[in-house]
Design brief:
With 346 residues, the chain is an alpha/beta fold. It contains 11 helices and 16 strands. The radius of gyration is 23 Å and the shape is elongated. 40% of the residues are buried.
Length: 346
């Protein structure tokens, strides 16, 4: 659960007047259930969202966050199998994690700008101080702007230099603004646009895939030229359902490397133009439903349209991992698994 996935709940609590405390997993050594950047937040109304360890240490973290809301001080806590709490709240997987605990300030200008960056899907790097010279301060850096400060021009300049290495990449880790000086340590979280999944064909498989992919963090768009099927209420988790022929719709969407296209119509009138536009674009993944006969027919049609063999080889077909899937839901699982295995997931 990253900042993107817990932000709305944190804002909702703050809007109704609750105080909010948040735990951030800032460093992982050896094995741990979740990666750096995972978050767990609680409200003074006793609600919670997110996870930093899939349950191993959340009980203790919850108590510490409640203490913070009662007037405690921000702190970094280490949990591991070797500490004295191992039998109570340690990590049974044998790893060790550092967790930053702090009270959330909804009025902080850095937070306001972070929410705008996430909403606009523009790149940025949020730096949260964890060293003695940077503690309790944060700085958001964008390509041509910054919000916040670590209190000195020197540290801010060092932050800009280090953040440029992370800009545009999905990453979360502790770095030292001045290499070799732990007093300048910050936790760096880089934000990149959410990956898009364009589903061509408003089929039962598409419905199941839309729901699963949205919950995994994809921005889902459905393209369907048949008006009887192109109903938004059939795809409540999709950002948009576009009633149009795929060649027109996909051109208008502007397919880019962060976009995956999965073609599920199983109808040559829809499949072929969708494949043609997708393969001529820079989109990162193209998947096609159908067995060997369908794959062979679609490939021949693409070659006849002027695409070369190497371009046709970009098609993942039959789409999805071979897990013996039969039902629409199972096939959707296999497709989502292949997207994850291909590095397309958030």
């Amino acid at each position: 659960m990253t900042l993107r996935s817990v932000r709305e709940e944190m804002d909702r609590w703050a809007d109704r007047g609750d105080r909010v405390a948040v735990a951030t997993l800032i460093e992982v050594r050896r094995s741990a259930p979740l990666p750096a950047g995972a978050k767990f937040a609680i409200s003074s109304g006793d609600e919670l969202v997110g996870s930093i360890s899939s349950g191993c240490v959340e009980g203790d973290v919850h108590e510490r966050l409640m203490a913070l809301l009662g007037g405690g001080s921000p702190q970094t806590v280490t949990y591991g199998i070797t500490d004295e709490m191992a039998f109570g709240v340690g990590l049974s997987c044998g790893g060790e994690i550092d967790v930053l605990l702090e009270v959330h300030d909804p009025e902080d200008p850095v937070w306001h700008r972070v929410t705008e960056v996430l909403a606009s899907q523009t790149p940025g790097v949020l730096l949260t101080g964890v060293g003695s010279r940077t503690k309790s301060r944060s700085l958001l850096l964008e390509a041509n702007a910054s919000t916040g400060s670590f209190g000195s021009e020197e540290l801010d300049a060092q932050a800009r230099s280090r953040a440029n290495e992370l800009m545009g990449r999905s990453d979360a880790r502790v770095i030292e603004l001045a290499p070799g000086d732990p007093d300048t340590a910050v936790f760096a979280e880089s934000f990149v646009p959410v990956p898009r999944l364009v589903i061509v064909g408003a089929t039962p498989i598409g419905q199941a895939l839309s729901a699963m992919a949205a919950r995994t963090g994809f921005e889902v768009i459905v393209v369907e030229p048949r008006s009887a099927f192109a109903k938004a209420d059939r795809f409540p988790d999709a950002r948009e359902v576009i009633e149009a022929w795929p060649d027109d719709a996909l051109d208008a969407l502007g397919l880019d490397p962060r976009t995956s296209v999965v073609i599920l119509a199983h109808d040559e009138k829809i499949d072929e133009p969708a494949l043609d536009v997708s393969l001529r674009s820079s989109c990162g993944y193209v998947g096609l439903l159908g067995g060997r006969r369908t794959q062979k027919q679609r490939r021949a049609a693409l070659l006849a349209r002027g695409l070369d063999e190497a371009t046709c080889d970009r098609v993942h077909g039959p789409v999805g991992l071979d897990i013996g899937a039969r039902t629409p839901e199972q096939i959707a699982v296999s497709i989502l698994a292949e997207l994850i295995a291909s590095g397309r997931a958030p």
